[in-house]
Amino acid sequence: xxxxxxxxxxxxxxxxxxxxxxxxxxxxxxxxxxxxxxxxxxxxxxxxxxxxxxxxxxxxxxxxxxxxxxxxxxxxxxxxxxxxxxxxxxxxxxxxxxxxxxxxxxxxxxxxxxxxxxxxxxxxxxxxxxxxxxxxxxxxxxxxxxxxxxxxxxxxxxxxxxxxxxxxxxxxxxxxxxxxxxxxxxxxxxxxxxxxxxxxxxxxxxxxxxxxxxxxxxxxxxxxxxxxxxxxxxxxxxxxxxxxxxxxxxxxxxxxxxxxxxxxxxxxxxxxxxxxxxxxxxxxxxxxxxxxxxxxxxxxxxxxxxxxxxxxxxxxxxxxxxxxxxxxxxxxxxxxxxxxxxxxxxxxxxxxxxxxxxxxxxxxxxxxxxxxxxxxxxxxxxxxxxxxxxxxxxxxxxxxxxxxxxxxxxxxxxxxxxxxxxxxxxxxxxxxxxxxxxxxxxxxxxxxxxxxxxxxxxxxxxxxxxxxxxxxxxxxxxxxxxxxxxxxxxxxxxxxxxxxxxxxxxxxxxxxxxxxxxxxxxxxxxxxxxxxxxxxxxxxxxxxxxxxxxxxxxxxxxxxxxxxxxxxxxxxxxxxxxxxxxxxxxxxxxxxxxxxxxxxxxxxxxxxxxxxxxxxxxxxxxxxxxxxxxxxxxxxxxxxxxxxxxx
Amino acid sequence: xxxxxxxxxxxxxxxxxxxxxxxxxxxxxxxxxxxxxxxxxxxxxxxxxxxxxxxxxxxxxxxxxxxxxxxxxxxxxxxxxxxxxxxxxxxxxxxxxxxxxxxxxxxxxxxxxxxxxxxxxxxxxxxxxxxxxxxxxxxxxxxxxxxxxxxxxxxxxxxxxxxxxxxxxxxxxxxxxxxxxxxxxxxxxxxxxxxxxxxxxxxxxxxxxxxxxxxxxxxxxxxxxxxxxxxxxxxxxxxxxxxxxxxxxxxxxxxxxxxxxxxxxxxxxxxxxxxxxxxxxxxxxxxxxxxxxxxxxxxxxxxxxxxxxxxxxxxxxxxxxxxxxxxxxxxxxxxxxxxxxxxxxxxxxxxxxxxxxxxxxxxxxxxxxxxxxxxxxx
Lengths: 647, 378
Description:
heterodimer, A: 5-stranded mixed sheet, globular, B: mainly beta, 4-stranded antiparallel sheet, 14% helix, 37% strand
């Protein structure tokens, strides 16, 4: 049989025609789909996407310009975008953070910052943009599609409502930072939140979330690039570990801080392995700024770095110098440097207040599968095999490859590079094990762990090929449990993301207290100030907000236990005119590590006390389900009638 | 000694009332004994909407495990009904439950069971429970108020800016609701449904907030700063039509109106710190038995218009009260019966007069008398 003749090479005109036709038909299919996104949904996507893309280009341009001067070697290969993005993000955070500390981060200034950073492209940094292969691109698009739908749907994630969208909104509204006992989460380093504030100003609610999605894609590409550079073909397994893990992809399309931290940790790792102290200091400093839980990974990277001890100390001090301004800010405001994680003043401020003996910011025992010696020994097995996405048993899931790759990784320890990676990964894992056993807290170190494990994948033909096939089957075995929940969530988000489910209906369906927030936006006076007690709908309330709390509700409990009967009066003195209160029950089965007396005194008593205070001192003006809105009446009973007429 | 006798007498009365009311009620008679408060066991399930359980005439409507209103108890016969379907936010009238939106429809409670009444259903959801008087339905919407005859498919929508959450009130042809008056706070507005071209007008406004409007027959009642107001709509907008009773209320549950008798939650007077600390420490469960006698003595001394210093009490304009240590909350009144909640339980207090008595036209709160006394005259 004759060999088929190869098709003639296409000319430029034909290629252009085919390409344009494909784009035009694809665009028409999207835009003209009878059940496709509505016009407002398109507007939201384009505005947010445009802002996110502008932000990404800005940090690449700014970071590339800086690195072209300070460390041009980092831009020479496909790892360049990773380093440029990290340095650019740090620069953005420093500028915006400085302006916010001075109370100058107005929305106009926030928007202009993006343009200032993008001016870095004028220096023509020699950046090589990512060039993933077709297969990698398809995999990334598939696994990141749920994140895209998350980003375009209204926000219902607890941490977004309470912190990662709430704080940027408050920063924009006040042009400055918030913090202290009335805004405890504002006393954390606000590195990412000032960046999110700029994106909010530029592109609305979807912008920070789409920007986060782009950073996730950059992180995946960074892992791919580092894997190829340092581990060769074996390095391709590292990104597979990540795309097969629910906990890594869970927040891809949300405004969150774990994945940006992972990006910074990855850049720090590469700088450490290349023996470059300054980029290491910058990346490590950013990682700590973004999330303190990066400390374990950063420590491991420093131990594994190809640097002298003197260089490591200098880099370490440099990293800490980037975090120090946030500590100094807290100290200047009379707070513990690490507030709100530490340093709650629980002494009674009113004679009626009982105070509290201690108030851990998080109960370590609440998460995972126990903290006995046996539990710690079984931790790797339990965390991978028995974790639950929706329960406090690790609150997530990861790929079974994390266990399956261990034997190969151990065998690879005879080589120096895998030894370094393993050291950094082991320190990261130990640090995670010492803290709350929440898989999301492992995410900043997960790319590092994935690279360390991928170092042991057998290469070559024959038995190695069979081993790789077995690893592929293991990856596939983990996909239903890891990707299934994401696909279910994507299907749920699709109508809202495309404008076919009303925003209010979606919000209330997923976050019932949202009904109260929506009512408050419509009916509370424009100058109302809302104090949230045992409620966390902060990002949904279009008024200045005080307090707010989630899960163990430390801020609300601390306020009640220290202010006693003056709790509501003191909130009023702080400016609150209304209260949003969500009925909270601290179930005994979730706190088996507390005695009944402890649970009653520390958890339940403040809730009961608040109910009594509300009956005595506040006026109920709205209730939906478990959430109530109260009006705080003026405190002086003999005030003039007009004074009492406050709405 | 006197106190112990009072406690014992009250307990004995309550026990006798329960014993007499329970089985006897299940067999044939009215529920609850005159002058006595009894707990209603088996109806303590928490409702998704805090307005329920409540009285729909001589029926207690209450919730199932899912928090939806799905059962009713007759106070006249003791019969308990399971409703053919459930509601989250039904509008109530004597013997009637009406829903709109996803729970559109009307149930009539009869001794033989709950009957679905064919009516013109409104499938649009409101922003508060609807109201019905058996002839008309009314509801609050985001940008207005609407009303319709139950047997006709026409629905009149009038532009307004309701505050949401507060149900409307139907008193004859008058529809009243709480309006979001912006800087002026909350006001009560109304309109005459018999006048097709009538526009909504303010009924009660001015400084402070006028809210929680409720209706019974031709009467309307609402809460103003430091007062509860009852209006007889038959007398037009004249001073004689309106009766204002000093009250510290409106901080939680709305008042309850039966004809021109209004019951409300009364906040204790005096330093709120003392009452908060006392209530938080003592709790209501253990204070009920002893506190009744103490509350009686203190209530007598301080006067029913003031309530006691022990917690939130319920006052009625015809003299019926529910008080004592702890909080008595969420009044629902019909005839001689006052339904309320205390310590997580449903209680029913029965007045001495029968349901056929209209009660005094203009009743001033009694200033003396024992805790359990009801109105002494027709």
